[in-house]
Structure prediction request, 195 residues.
Amino acid sequence: MRKASVTRTTAETEISVEIDLDGTGVYDNQTGIGFFDHMLDQLSRHSLIDMTIRAKGDYHIDDHHTVEDTGISLGQALAQALGDKKGIRRYAACHLPMDDAQVRAALDLSARPYLIWNVDMPTQKIGTFDTELVREFFQGFATHGGITLHVDQLHGFNSHHIAEATFKAVARALREAIETDPRKADAIPSTKGAL
Prediction:
């Protein structure tokens, strides 16, 4: 059973994450940040990872700590649920169009975290949400999930579409990378024998 539960409590936030990698994309995400909940819902739905997230943060300051710590916690849960990564496909990529936006996400569940981020949001806000926090989420997620993650915006002029295409592209790539490879279900996908 590839499931995990992570709780993270700091002076700034309280986060709890539960995931099931072999789910159907059922989600119940409540962070207190409407647009961010919408993006987490997309991540769950398009990766087919069942996801329940509860977050409380220091919103009187801003949303930064809540978004970043949610990324950290979700990355930790992913790493925990993957275990030794035996049988997974490991690599995947997705070119995802959404109206004016097209985003490419390529990832490797390598245990070597690295984020390449070539995304330019034309506005500083989507509603009340700071667009720079999209990168902060994926930085925490990649670092603590042990993911080499490359995200490139190929087109786009609407910040909402760009952000949403980013979450969906990562989700679709993640869905493929965590799937069991039927030709090598009993092996770690590395010549080193470990990830």
Q: What stands out?
A: The CA atoms of residues 76 and 144 lie 5 Å apart. The first strand starts at residue 3 and ends at 9. The chain has a mean pLDDT of 97. The helical segments are 34-47, 64-82, 132-145, 159-178.
